[in-house]
Amino acid sequence: MRLICRVSGIGSSFSRRPTADPSAVLDGGSILPFAGHKGSSIPFMIEILAGALTGGCFGFEDRSHEISRRADPEGGQTVILIDPLRVPGNSYFERIESLFEAIRRPSGSASGPATSN
Description:
Low-confidence stretches: 113-117
Strand content: 5-15%
Helix content: 25-40%
Distance between the termini: 51 Å
Strand order of the largest sheet: 2-1-3
Radius of gyration: 20 Å
């Protein structure tokens, strides 16, 4: 199977050169943050939750790529479970439905999901 990526600038190779080649990303490269500076905060929070909180390696500390046939980076794992039914007065399901409705609307129709006061 050949991997194809049609989006340029989505990743970098092991040598830190920009690439759209998924094989280069998977062979020691990395996926670049999306949404510019705003998108970079998502992987930052993951580093905190899966590295600092668990005692696992941060991404820059991981050396698993240096050991051949090593499939397991020495990273931590964090699982966060939230039960929206336990939050008093929560309108989670109604809000999610309004989000789905907004996504299904054709482009250019009424803007965004309805908000509740």
